[in-house]
Write a structure and sequence with these properties.
Shape of chain A: globular
Order of helices and strands of chain A: EHEHHEHEHEHEHHEHEH
Helix content of chain A: 40-55%
Number of domains of chain A: 2
Number of strands of chain A: 8
Radius of gyration of chain A: 16 Å
Largest sheet of chain A: 4 strands, parallel
Strand order of the largest sheet of chain A: 2-1-3-4
Oligomer: homohexamer
Number of helices of chain A: 10
CATH topology of the largest domain in chain A: Rossmann fold
Strand content of chain A: 15-25%
Chain lengths: ~220, ~220, ~220, ~220, ~220, ~220
């Protein structure tokens, strides 16, 4: 079987899935794994609470089981890494979470990681997870852009808010690398990096890179 | 210019360089970056002390400067990550260290990272570095196989000692993922993983994967 | 409405529920809250993996919603604290998890908390959670009795294994207080405390005490 | 002997003792332990320094010895937990400190604990203690209301200052639960909780709840 | 006034005081501060519990007040650093504790500090203090020689037990520097260092050196 | 041989060397070690990057080797502690770094250490080192005065900037002790201490005191 990395967007927003697929173009090699972005139909429009994060675990694991034979590795493309450890128990394939991969990748680019999040009410959920990963003390700050779903459609405004928040993380919190705390921000990575003069990690790219690394470390050509 | 990842073995052992190049075969894609393993002629036969680690920084940075125009990214392939931050100041290309990349990659595969090292006298140097990276509390243990250079030629013995030490890390220290603490162990990765039933990370593979991730995250095809 | 603490056993083992109800007798006061132990019919016989832990979240939150009007507080009586934060979003009543309450209570009885668990494969799940709680560095050790479900029926053997493991936590890991890492061990608390000469915390008792504290801190007689 | 929890206010301010006794009304059950609040006559008017905190240890331990036969558990009701470990050596009864119990209880209500203290010069003493407890990294901030003793008589002003400081802990430090860092603030708990929209812990209530939990975990009705 | 460092042995054992005075000979310079070792007459024969540690605070602070005009700096020469922060509030002179100075000095000699203590029951007291100092994670281990007072008179036996325990700290716990956890061990420092091949810190020497440093940093000749 | 502490200024600025020598006057005793301040001729004018810090290691270790027979101890007088561990491998004499000694000394004077640095771009280098030392969580903040080399000649301006930055560390970051993050600030220590009302540590003084302590702990008069 040819290698294939299945990237699951656990919210039902097809536009987000399309955006991440575009951002992953650089990871598609002629003789490399296929990179397939899938939308979890049962997912909510956005994962903005612990309840929504926990609710997608079931359908997510079912999708993983259904894809298992046709997949080499899985990426869970939501910054809450919903169901990451259940998924790892569900399959022998590697499963990578974008928050875990995004932050550990950022630790190769700077000492103090700043997180640009969407909503303030996600912060306690994030802090639990950063602690669980064992990296909380490397997080310089986690600041939300605090925009509603309707506002998120306004690309210019999203970018301005991300720049403001990223600038605060850099200037007040001492961040020297940023991670975008959402799978739906991919298109702003390059612009933000340029505007702020700091490396900016798109966690979905980081996770696909991590999956590729794990797969290719095992290959014996 | 076509992309090219330059992997520098900062010791002068050509066999080690050849071994890592073979282990990186899976990361060479038809339309991906060239992966070029280079030996630092000025390096010592092995980097077994802080002095030797610090002494290679100068020649390493000169090699990086010399290669800079013809490289897209650099990997420093010694588990002490000698000169990593000097190198980062020497070039605008990404520079990845194998210890940093190996351990952060392992954090995507388990909760408690065990390190299989060569020499006991490297342990205090390692612990300073694990602390500097901010991951010391995720390290379940760092145990040496304690073999002399001449003994290292005996592949069977090396593998037996790595298995013993890895088994202790798993059973007594609770490690659920291992990192091989040397760039020269690549050929034992798969065997060790099978023998111990734990994921085993070859840090050179992890670092090249990390360099690839950073490069391709920036690409706009 | 009279106060009522609903203790949910998220596995379907009625004997475990009966055992914890007996252990909670001391928390039932003439003019205090009713303490009602409920079995989650949809739960598995035991929660021995992340998958099982995540699978009960849905039915658990539905039970909480169903009981909400007739409850003053909830206790989730499984040492993995499954769905704790989803549950907290599901209701305005306080929700207490037995691992969180058991360990924080133990921190009032000693400096180094030892955990007596059932299965070795739960340890990575536990360590993620201890880190998420921010108390990992206060945990002296987490050792399993490693007994199968059928062996768990043999009370004498369970007690002997708990004593052995607790003795190792005390003598080799320096634990000065123990937490029993399972809601089904209540009947061994007093015996273990006497045998080992260390305070032993039954986390279900600790959690009900915590729920009572939260409720009564708000009361205005 | 009927159960009896002796709560010792180690300063000599009878009004503070009366205030905490009123706040404990909800913990007095018809068939539960008596809860007896006692003033340490030898104590200073307030415990505002390490010297004063250390000076009360002797008389406090003497009071504990004198009460020992007639007590089931002790609570030391000063946020410096003066003499907590000496007291634990002085008696076989459980001894609970209000800072230890208040903070560990708060860890069941949120991820980032904010402390509302009285005086700025107590902060270094607090930080030593939060570190000793092993919870310093869960403390979002510790801010003083900085009011003199005479100003503390002005209830309205105290509440306004507590609200301001609590609001800063919530908005600037990310606290999602507050602990009042003084045994004399009980009467403001409910108002503060309502004003700020965060759970607020009165540490004396938390400590009595903890003592009750420890006692009733041992009971065999 | 000529400079004078007052070293207070807070136990009443004159032999211990004489031993530390002898060990401080190297710190007495022709034109340097006098170094005066004093025995606290009110102290117990040994400080082997939190109660005894807390009980000496009063007399210790009184001795400091009495000596204040005739002293330039104070050293509290007991490894529990009893009353260190009360003493600091009692005088404007610098006050140094031997545990704090011993461990921070050891951090200049190695990465992993091993502690050779007398009694097992001191370990929880020590761990609270190491945490309060913020250095707990640099402590490789704290092992007691577990000898009774009468056995401590047997110098040969004390040395053998210290060597055994120090060897375990080195070989099993990875300590690369040791601190002797008692002011009464000075005479064994050099022998232990030679026997074990590790730097060994006598904390009383470290504390007097620290006091000298603080004094002379302020001097303007 | 008479004792002699060799203090090496690894930058080539003779004025800095002269300034530190003056600040060390208080550590020169009639019958104590000579304290000899040496300028590393090969050093750069200032050590303002990781590259410059790493580049001095070679010449520094050569100077240590050249001086070895005529020295009792070495101090590396640059706040980056360049080559500290290489130097320790290069000689059997004790080698002390001013950052390590300055910060561990400050931990004897307060709970929260503030660092007054020169340049913002040194902060990531510092944070790696504070983590490596295991003291990062005791650092209240590290703020730069951000002055160019030419501005540094203006003593009044330097002092004003240090006072401003030190005041922010005290008032906003809660620092209760400061360390001057440069070997060239000695002359401002006393003034800063007076202006801010906090103890201020000159790390070069602290390091010479540490060297003296280590030497004299070994002496047997």
């Amino acid at each position: 079987m040819a290698e294939r990395i299945v990237v699951i967007n656990p919210n039902c927003n097809e536009q987000v899935t399309a955006g991440m697929s575009a951002a992953l173009e650089g990871f598609r090699f002629a003789d490399g794994p296929a990179i397939d972005c899938r939308t979890l139909a049962e997912g909510p429009p956005g994962i903005e609470s612990q309840i929504l994060s926990d609710q997608v675990i079931g359908p997510l694991c079912r999708m993983i089981a259904a894809e298992d034979k046709a997949a080499s590795a899985f990426v869970i493309a939501c910054f809450s890494d919903p169901g990451l450890h259940s998924a790892r128990e569900s399959t022998d394939r590697p499963v990578v979470g974008i928050a875990e991969a995004g932050i550990t990748t950022a630790m190769n680019l700077g000492q103090n990681v700043g997180i640009v999040s969407i909503l303030a009410n996600s912060l306690p959920r994030h802090v639990r997870y950063f602690r669980a990963m064992g990296v909380a003390h490397c997080i310089a700050g986690d600041l939300p852009i605090d925009m509603t779903v309707s506002e998120l459609a306004d690309d210019g405004k999203v970018f301005r808010r991300m720049s403001e928040v990223g600038g605060r993380l850099r200037d007040e919190n001492g961040a020297d690398v940023l991670v975008m705390g959402c799978a739906g921000f991919s298109r702003h990575r390059a612009g933000l990096e340029e505007a702020l003069g700091l490396p900016v990690v798109d966690p979905t790219q980081a996770a696909v890179g991590m999956a590729l690394t794990i797969l290719r470390s095992r290959s014996r050509r």
